[in-house]
Amino acid sequence: QGDFSSVSMDTAVAIRTLEATYKSSAEAASVESMIAKLIEKEGPYLKSKGRARDAARIGILTWRSLLIMSRDWKYFWSRLVLYMLLALSIGTIFIDIGHSLSSVVVRISAMFVFVSFLILLSVCGVPAHIDEIKVGFSFSL
């Protein structure tokens, strides 16, 4: 039923033949009519070339990163433990700073230390996030 070993056909010719066969088929006509009905019904939402908004793309990438991180529990728990140790260590360093006006500078420095360490810890996940972005762009092309 399917022995095509004796057929020698150039790949480009095969692709053109398949395209021409599909374009002249009933399935192509039904798909075109379905697309026309959807464009009439949905209007400008479908005319935006199928691109998602930036917020939706960031949300999807974040969800996928969390999903991948949840599959590897050692990675998830190690990051959680590091964040907890960071909060505990900064909290113990700046526990008795007082309530005077000069302690405002110390409180601000504590916030900067905390934020800088959070950024440092979150940079560890950047390579995985970059891989997710590459996968997302390969799906959109």
TrEMBL record:
Main location as per UniProt: membrane
Residue ranges that the Swiss-Prot or TrEMBL entry lists as coiled coil: none
InterPro entries tied to this protein: ABC2_TM, Plant_ABCG
Membrane topology term: Multi-pass membrane protein
Location in the cell: Membrane
Gene Ontology CC, one term: membrane
This protein's record includes keyword Manganese: no
Pfam families named in the record: ABC2_membrane
Residue ranges annotated for the ABC-2 type transporter transmembrane domain, each copy included: 58-130
UniProt keyword list: Membrane, Transmembrane, Transmembrane helix, Transport
An example molecular function term from Gene Ontology annotations: ABC-type transporter activity
Domain of life of the organism encoding this protein: Eukaryota
TM region positions: 76-97, 104-130
Family classification: Belongs to the ABC transporter superfamily. ABCG family. Eye pigment precursor importer (TC 3.A.1.204) subfamily.
Protein name per the record: ABC-2 type transporter transmembrane domain-containing protein
Organism: Aegilops tauschii subsp. strangulata (Goatgrass)
Source organism phylogeny: Eukaryota, Viridiplantae, Streptophyta, Embryophyta, Tracheophyta
